Structure of TlpA family protein disulfide reductase:
Amino acid sequence: MTRRMRAAAIGIAAALLLTGCASDPLAEQYKEGSNKGYIAGDGSVTEIPEAERGESISFSGTTEGGDQISSVDFAGEVLVVNFWYAACAPCRAEAPDLQELSAAYDGKGAQFIGVNVYDQADTALSFNETYGITYPSILDVQDGAVKLAFTGTVPPKAVPTTIVLDKEGRVSARILGQLKEASILSTLVSDAIDE
């Protein structure tokens, strides 16, 4: 019995040692101790072919202006959903591009909406004023219901994350992390409109 226990202990120790050797980018960001307050994405783009998309994503919430908004409000249009918060440096960096694209696609088959995962209304409104953001954001800080709605398909694992929903409300693309090139998101939106 002692020999078996010793062998099991050695096996467990070896497994733990090997697990410690694996590279985990999220763990590395945490360990670096930069206190940046967010887990950064790498800007990777995931596109989902039309035939492989799952069910429509349904969500609703209250905007920074106190209005109720729902995914149903955008039925038949492409919807660009950006997860963000004001103290997130990449969120601030991509804000002008998102606003520019939102204005460019206004009335042309696509709408933009933000999902603020951290701030209260006053902070979100101040951010909008600073960066000239005109599209609404749902305040998702209390229960994370909007973020949860996307979890089964392509979860927003980092902030910022931008998700494109097709005209049927299904996820067609995700940009994990800061939008580096506005042209990439523009292409994803145009492709979804043209489907």
The radius of gyration is 20 Å. Residues 44-194 form a domain with the Glutaredoxin fold (CATH 3.40.30.10). The longest strand covers residues 78-84. Confidence is low (pLDDT under 50) at residues 13-39.
